[in-house]
Amino acid sequence: MNVRRWFRRGVELDEEIRAHLAMAARERIARGETAEAAELAARREFGNVGLVKELTRSYWRGAAVERTGREARQLLRGLARRPGVTIAVVVTLALGIGANAAVFTITDRLLVREPAGVPDPGTLHRVYATRTMRGRASIREVFSAPEVRAVPGAVAPIARASPVFGPIATASGGHGIPESRIEVTYTGATFFSTLGVRPAMGRFFTTDENRFDAPSDVAVISYNYWTRELHGARNVLGGTLRIEGRPYTIIGIGPRDFTGIDVQPADVWVPLASLTRFSTPNERWYESAGLLAYGLVMRVASPSNASQAAVRAQEALRRVARTEQLGDSSATVILGSIIEARGPQTMTREDRIALLLSAITLMVLFVACANAANLLLARALHRRRELAVRLALGISRRRLAAHLLLESVILGLLSAAAASIAATWLAAALRRLIVPDIHWRAAFDLRVAAFTFGIALLIGLVVGVAPALEVSRTDISQALKSGRREGGRRSGRIRAALMVTQAALSVVLLIGAGLFLRSLTRVQQIDVGYDVDHVVTASTMFLPEHHASLKQVAERARALPGVSAAALTAATPLDGMLGARLFSRAGDSLAVPARHTGYMAVEPSYFDATGIRVDRGRALSGDDRVGTAPVTVVSHELARGLWPGRDPLGECIRIGGPTARCYTVVGVARDVHPFRLIDSSAAMLYVSLSQPPESLSVAGLVLRTRGDPAPVARWLTRALGDTASDPQQRAVAVMADRLAPQYRPWRMGAQLLAGLGVLGLIIAAFGLYAVTSYLVTQRTRELAVRIAIGARAGNIVRTVLGSALRLVLVGIVLGTGIALAAGQSVAGLLYDTSPADPLILAAAAIVLIVTACVAVLIPVRRAVRVDPLIALRAE
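The structure corresponding to this sequence follows.
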């Protein structure tokens, strides 16, 4: 059928009916009737014009669609005439749908979406292996250089494998390319062929360009980087890109949508052999069998070959372990998803909180749905007489129920449009909060749009069920007699159940927020042993020839007015410590009952620079140098473990071997946390850099500031940048900023649950207000009678407020039970906080009760002011 004619069918029908009536009237006029009488007779003979139109339309193709469209337009006009309920339902659902769409944007990217631009991702895998250390088994996704060299040959020809390192944030610029921080990935020569991608322009690396004995300085840039930073310049091939001060020749541009295999998009790919630039001939760390740094990507020829490829890779790893004597000769290979978050390794605390967030946003959506269903049910009951009149005039119950369902679907779709706007900025905010170190834009694309409108359509159908059921059971005669202010017991039970559901879920959200807030407070109270607010650290990773320059930087820093102390170290705080076995003076091995044991080689000013207090004896001093008796300062943890109940001062410890030099204990310092906030304190020894137990290189610098550490950190960054032409890393940071990511899981949980808890509370409060307001309107006659026979304001307040609070109290009991039952599932995400903390449970209940009282304040006030004479006259 012609589309234009399909839309003109209604106009043509009107014209045809008018033509028929005019023809019948002319025939009567020809028989001698007057024009007026002929027209009336023709209309009588034709019958009901509207009914004829309706019957004719029912036979048209697409009649149901046209009827639905016509009803939708009528409903939109009706909703516009009653904007209060419309806005309430749309805003309520938009908040719930928008929150879920934003979370879907994050979880879709982290857990669902496969790497863009990669063909057949189902046969592409990340390689994992089990690892056993000190009797504890774990899963690793990084491998040593000998391992990544052995696996590709072992799995051929049924699979292809390639090593990958990164992406790593790196400085770049030069030759027309703006200075910026880019993400660089180091790959094997077969990386791109393993993935099955082709360059948009130019070419990829060759095997000769990726040789460790003669690496080539070539680079492939991503299509996104080419268009974003280079504006799609056609002459980019052969140009130069400087990465950490070294020039790389651009030989190719990646496919249009391809940004690598990680959530963090890669901007540039360079040969894996380029890692040799960051070492000396005597320090070939990139080939070390003990350094686990490289990932492995494998493409199997077909899914049936996956198990066989895993077995071959496993045999290769075990051979390397036996050859290199790594002590891990029982490794088992696992081929996991190319999506890293779906791998077999243990989920991080942030990942678990992100999944918890998905469950919490669903709870918010349930609260919103219950609220919307309650509002629509109240509106349907308010229209009870109108709907009864329609039924009395002949419309079927099925048709009327479908009408109400269509109304709720329209409201759902309007909510989806509003939720799309909210989800766009909310997703960006969540991305910054959940994965701030990953620089990708949480876009509202077609997948998210489909999810948003799909869930809105489903919700529209769900929330319209209660009003539709109520209409299908309406007694016409009773409804016409009772009017709009009375409803059945059944509808009252439905409203009560929906209100209890909202209250229960709100309590769960508030309890969750309280638990994470308490955990965050407890974590922030942890004493890590350092003065974190005034300490700046630098993990320089300089080449040995630059150590003299680093010492010069330390001397310059001591002269700064904002620096009170500076110290060079072999390992910076929070980066761990140097491991070594400990022996007694007699050469017996010493076992310390502590999770972490090691030593730090530092300058004597290290204690002043870090704020570590020496509680007994003395700290290291300038007199502890080469040629003098070696001394050490130990932590309380080590002293308790080795000499319980004894004075450790004067004791002697050999570090490294039974015949090593013996270090005399001259002081006992406060305990520190070596790696993480929630780790136990370390059993630590401190020795002077002038008296190390083994040959060590200076690897860090610690400064203590007198005021704001930020200016000192900026100065140190510039100073270190001037000391060497090609440093691989200048990790300068205020210690408080280094600890900030460790607070993130609890801060994230507290902020997210608090925000969603407040959102759920607002939705529930609004629903309670709307339902209570409706009940006051419905019970106006009853309240008027009570006031007329002498009821006081207090009695009316207790009546209205009591009915609302009873539902809230039932919801509190139910919600508290749900929170206690689910508490063990989130116990691992908390710190020093019980999921059944009575103060938090009580606080959540009080907050909800107070909110409920405020929400019903206006309806209660209106109930008290009911004028009996006016109310009874209206009835």
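The CA atoms of residues 510 and 757 lie 5 Å apart.
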